[in-house]
Design brief:
The structure is a single chain. By secondary structure, this protein is of the alpha+beta class. 40% of the residues lie in helices and 20% in strands. It has a four-stranded mixed sheet with strand order 1-4-3-2. Helix 1 (13-21) packs across helix 2 (23-37).
Length: 93
Amino acid sequence: MGKFELGKTVVTKGVARKMEEHPDFRLFVNDSLNRYSECDWGDTCGEDKEAVDYAVEHGERILAVYEHDKFPTIWIITEWDRSVTTVLFPEEY
């Protein structure tokens, strides 16, 4: 699996607020981004992981899911043109 460009990395207002309130959540987000950049799709289901691998190889939009036992689930999305990667809560989509 080849690596890919993240582009500009941004977080939504909800994620930013949670990161300010909880330093451990900030660590979770940073760890998830590191995993994501290494093509570790976290808690994305098996079938969707195959689709994400395909997206990396064929220049499509990338989406992965990361769960934590203490914090809300986050999604990380990189646009097809690799211009921006966004960290968000699913309900912010």
